Amino acid sequence: MRIRVNALWSGWLGQMVRFGLTGALNTAFSYAVYTAGVKLGLYAPAAWAIGYALGMALSLTVNTRWTFRWKERLRGGQVAAFLLVNMVSLGASTGMVALLADHYRWNEQWAGLAAAPVSMAINFVGNRIFVYRAGGGARCSRG
Q1: How many CB atoms lie within 10 A of CB 72?
Q2: Torsion-angle region of 8 (φ positive above 0: left; ψ -120 to 50: alpha; else: beta)
Q3: What is the C-alpha separation between 38 and 43, in angstroms, rounded?
Q4: Cβ neighbours of residue 42 closer than 8 Å, sequence gap 6 or more
Q5: Regions of the chain where pLDDT drops below 50
Q6: Distance CA 48, CA 33 (A)
Q7: CA-to-CA distance for 50 and 93, rounded, in angstroms?
Q8: Is 29 helix (H, G, I), strand (E, B) or coil?
Q9: Strand, coil or helix: what is 14?
Q10: DSSP string, 33-97
Q11: Quick one: pLDDT at residue 48?
């Protein structure tokens, strides 16, 4: 039983669970920055982008070391891929915040909460495929 649990935890399922926990931490941090920005009078999509950008640094560190257990220093191409994945995610989630808050007149906080799962899904898939690729051998524990 313990071997089976360890195998699941070290494979893609474990990565997804760790990514979800990391995402929850990152989302809480980014959302706190976003909420503070809105309370200070910032335009909701701008506040979202600022919170997201600050959360990216936290995400890169935790996902590299814990989620994907990357053993080596990230190369320039990996950092560029991380930034690209996050820019796609940021564009999609910021667009969703703008659509919900501006067009549909949702409360800004609800719009941010609705956009967060979209961002997390894009990030997990993009990071797993483009940043922490299979074939990394000992560099990344992949299932």
Answers
A1: 12
A2: alpha
A3: 7
A4: 50
A5: 135-139, 141-143
A6: 8
A7: 13
A8: helix
A9: helix
A10: HHHHHHHTT--HHHHHHHHHHHHHHHHHHHIIIIIS---SPPPHHHHHHHHHHHHHHHHHHHHHH
A11: 87
